[in-house]
């Protein structure tokens, strides 16, 4: 992709980016992996961490879709696998991460979310980083009891047309089951039911616990109390990253 002609970039955008780079210049490099079950708060914390430490956020699913859309050599290979209904190989995913790390936004490091999911993926990631003279600095484990997650997730209700969300315990509607503004019925997303959550949690524990063990042996896992309020989790994250 050709670089944009800087003369055509609005001054305010240039200044914003310049200020960001100046602020980021003295930040330490950090390569972080976020691990946690659905609903553990990774999505709330990752933008905060990204801005605070000037990291790029690498979500492998989005990156794969972007590589396929951009028809990069790796994207073409990934599309061939997807079209056959096969899983994209670990080597391809690690290759796509490797490509992404060349971007200026990843200069200070990255947050990886949703990868690695297996020990083999973790090993391949380590090998790739080693070639770059880098390594994973911290694995942030959003540890939370399954029962707490169940209450958190199965209590969520949504007003479909506006996207307003409620929670039976933490943010209930004025009248049970109906939207405060329109009085229309609320629905529950199909992923937010106890049965779906149970199978997702079982899969998560089965796949991810070996990955946590793998990184534990390297003494880089920080267990975060993910059931705490978001501000407290943010404070724990900062403590873990700076230690």
From TrEMBL:
Domain spans labelled Adenylate kinase active site lid: 156-191
Claim: Kinase is one of the keywords in the record: yes
GO MF entry, a single one: AMP kinase activity
Keyword annotations of the record: Kinase, Nucleotide-binding, Transferase
Catalytic activity: AMP + ATP = 2 ADP
Assigned EC number: 2.7.4.3
Transmembrane segments: none
Function: Catalyzes the reversible transfer of the terminal phosphate group between ATP and AMP. Plays an important role in cellular energy homeostasis and in adenine nucleotide metabolism.
Subunit-level organization: Monomer.
Record-stated family: Belongs to the adenylate kinase family.
Family annotation (NCBIfam families): adk, PRK00279.1-2, PRK00279.1-3
Protein name: adenylate kinase
Originating organism: Handroanthus impetiginosus
């Amino acid at each position: 992709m050709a670089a944009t002609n800087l003369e055509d970039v609005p001054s305010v955008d240039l200044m914003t980016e310049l200020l960001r780079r100046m602020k980021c210049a003295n930040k330490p490099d950090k390569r972080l992996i976020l691990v946690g079950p659905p609903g553990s708060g990774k999505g709330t914390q990752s933008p905060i961490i990204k801005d605070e430490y000037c990291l790029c956020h690498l979500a492998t699913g989005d990156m794969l879709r972007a590589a396929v859309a951009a028809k990069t050599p790796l994207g073409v290979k990934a599309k061939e696998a997807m079209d056959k209904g096969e899983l994209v190989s670990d080597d391809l995913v690690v290759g796509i991460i490797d490509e992404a790390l060349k971007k200026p936004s990843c200069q200070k490091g990255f947050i990886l979310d949703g990868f690695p999911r297996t020990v083999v993926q973790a090993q391949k990631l380590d090998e790739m980083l080693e070639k770059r003279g880098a390594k994973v600095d911290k694995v942030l484990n959003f540890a939370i009891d399954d029962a707490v997650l169940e209450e958190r997730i199965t209590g969520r209700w949504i007003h479909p047309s506006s996207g307003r969300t409620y929670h039976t315990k933490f943010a209930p509607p004025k009248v049970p089951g109906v939207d405060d503004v329109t009085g229309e019925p609320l629905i529950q997303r199909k992923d937010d039911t106890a049965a779906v959550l149970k199978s997702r949690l079982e899969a998560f524990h089965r796949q991810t616990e070996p990955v946590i063990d793998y990184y534990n042996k390297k003494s880089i896992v920080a267990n975060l109390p993910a059931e705490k309020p978001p501000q407290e989790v943010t404070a724990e994250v900062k403590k873990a990253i700076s230690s």
